[in-house]
Amino acid sequence: MAKKILIIAGEASGDLHGGNLVQAIRTVDPSISFRGVGGVHMQEAGVELLRNATEMGVVGLPGVRRLFTILQVFRLVSATLHSWQPDLVILIDYPEFNLTVAGKAKKLGIQVMYYISPQIWAWRSGRINTISQRVDRMVVILPFEEAIYEKADVKVSFVGHPLLDVIRVKDEEAIPRSRYLKNEASLLVGLLPGSRLSEISKLLPVMLDAATIIAREISSVEFLLPLASTIGHEEVTSYLRGRDLDLTVVENNTHEVIQMCEMVIAASGTVTLEAAILGTPLIVVYKVNPLTYWLGKRLVQVEHVALANIVAGETVAPELIQHEVTSERIAQEAIGILEDSKRQAWIRQRFSEVREKLGGPGASARAAAMALELMGRG
After folding, report:
1. CA-CA-CA-CA torsion sign (54, 119, 302, 123)
2. What sections of the chain are H helices per DSSP?
């Protein structure tokens, strides 16, 4: 009888990695059927979606309407566990929701694999006790996470970071800078304000103000604004109106833009690892609503917010947090990097070491092998 997998990703990045994981599993056994919560990547990979993950993704504290939606989705997932009776549940990040699902699955005797760990090393480390009771296999993508789970006697495997399967570092001569540059001699700076409208509204205006200062101090500089797939061109137009900047908006080519730039200014998130993999110096900015920041200051247990710095174990990319996110500070840090070739070289060297720590390509295939093993197909 064909096996069945219920797979849940609550946000866009989880959907991407979930889609790649489903493809890797189906490459080995195309008879396996999938249902779950995710987005376009998982759907294209062959997952029958119970609900779209875009309705659940949230930064900071969820509103009442979003909370109601999350409760609806949980009831639907619970009903599916009972009626469909999958052979395996795969949970991707999104810990509050997914650990509750894991508890339901374990009560029904269903194997649970957790792919992409909750950030227990950053805050709420006590969740590892819940994980040890509800998760049969933890599959981690950051190198230092394996030791944390081994110490707690959780069965764990480090498979490498799935971004290494997605990002291809190109030969610099193969990148057509003329496609974006008006002046071949210009320096290129990328502005990456995030993948959510809330991040765009908080960060893009201050990034554009900083770009104006940078352009005033450095005569030959141009700017690229690569848009995340979740952001349309029309959603940034109002912020650009009236700006006297050499700036080009780019759609669907973020990785090439990052590699092409001398440096990028980016919202904290997975993009900091993307920049590290591509070897591009960056400045990280992080700004949330005051209540979320106040709570985070009291709960978070790490020295850095950027994943690239966390993996490096030091501040390779400058971090500007909350009240430090001003146009003047961003411009000051950017000019300091752009005018210091030795510092640029040091950043690139440290980022090459970060890339090495992240493992090699093939994370999805290795995670797929573990899923199949849990179902007795290994």
Report:
1. positive
2. 12-28, 40-45, 64-84, 95-107, 127-134, 145-151, 163-166, 197-217, 234-240, 254-260, 271-278, 290-299, 307-312, 327-338, 341-357, 363-374
- The model carries a pTM of 0.85
Per-residue exposure over 16-25, b if at least 16 CB sit within 10 Å of its own CB, e if not: bbbbbbbbbb
The three-state secondary structure class of 21 is helix
Q: What is the CATH number of the domain that holds 127?
A: 3.40.50.2000
Q: How many domains is the chain partitioned into structurally? A: 2
324, 366: one domain: no
Other Cβ atoms within 10 Å of 302 Cβ, number: 11
Q: 265 and 238: one domain?
A: yes
Residue 216 is assigned to a structural domain of this protein: yes
Q: What is the domain extent for residue 317?
A: 172-357
- Which of the residue ranges 218-227, 263-272, 301-310, 331-340 would you say has the lowest mean pLDDT? 301-310
167 occurs within a structural domain:
no
When pLDDT is cut at 50, 70 and 90, the band that residue 84 belongs to is: very high
Instruction: Please give the distance of CA 103 from its chain centroid, rounded to a whole number.
Output: 25
